[in-house]
Design goal:
With about 80 residues, the protein is mainly α. About 55% of the residues lie in helices and about 10% in strands. It has three helices and two strands. A two-stranded antiparallel ribbon has the order 1-2.
């Protein structure tokens, strides 16, 4: 991933890299959702379903599907089982 390190943090550059970081962020939010955390707006499960193109009703199943999607596109080093 293309990233620029600055004194204020890290800046992700490039449309593809921004989308990949979004996948990782949604996966983290979905993991918290499976453990009971709630959020306002769209749930992480809904966002994961939009990314994968599937329609899972259970957050746990959506997490596994999103994790498989991430591993497929980014590699095995990004595998984070539930």
């Amino acid at each position: 991933m293309a990233a620029e390190v600055t004194s204020g943090g890290i800046m992700i550059t490039g449309a593809e890299d921004i989308e990949r970081v979004r996948w990782l962020s949604v996966r983290s939010a979905l993991k918290l959702e499976t453990r009971g955390m709630q959020r306002r707006g769209k749930s992480a499960r809904v966002l994961a379903n939009e990314i994968t193109g599937k329609n899972h009703r259970l957050a746990r199943v959506a997490y596994m599907e999103l994790n498989a999607h991430i591993v497929k596109h980014l590699g095995e080093e990004f595998n984070r089982p539930l």
